[in-house]
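Troubleshooting: if your tokenizer reports a length mismatch, compare your output against this known-good record of 227 residues.
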Amino acid sequence: MLRIILSITLAVLIWFRFLKPMNHFTKMGVKQTKPWPILGDIWRNLFQQMNSLESVEFYYKMFPGARYSGFYQFSIPTLIIKDSELLKQITVRDFHHFTDHRTFVDADVDPLWAGNLFALTGQTWKEMRATLSGSFTSSKMKNMVHYMNGAAENFVKFFLNKNEKLIDIDMKDAFKRFTNDVISTTTFGMCGFSQISKQRYLFNGKAKHRLFFSVQTFAVFRNADDA
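Known-good structure output:
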């Protein structure tokens, strides 16, 4: 008798904890995927049928024409927003209802990650968002695109000037240099040609934890606000 009671109790707990949440969006009239019990829609990643980017694209395109749809990260309902106006409403007009990011690691376990922009929550995130919003207005972002394009053109020209049919490239090193150029020109208004010389790094190898500026590091100095 005790085994029967325990079995029923366990079955009820499994239903409410792992199975019932899988119908969350259906009950609300929102189109959703067909998740697996317990695993939700993450099973494609767990069984290596798709990587993370492929799975996000897959679920995004699952319901063409829908403004939003739902899928499940294990038993956690996750809403995919596709409509630009709805996205603007959530992130701007109704932002006070959506202030928190999802917590992946507790701040006591990894305080460095907890201070990451995408891990902030509550009042801390609201204050940081207010601080950063002024740096990412539409006009400033348009100016950034100009400098990003310049860094990309320098990146391409560097390899075209080699005039070789086959070029051996360390991709990690090449894109690290390109990233440094983009950051230096958009953030500090300085154009660095780090592809040309290994000595021209925003972050020098001998001082990995210290930001420094020198004439040797940057070939051209520009003020981003003058664009």
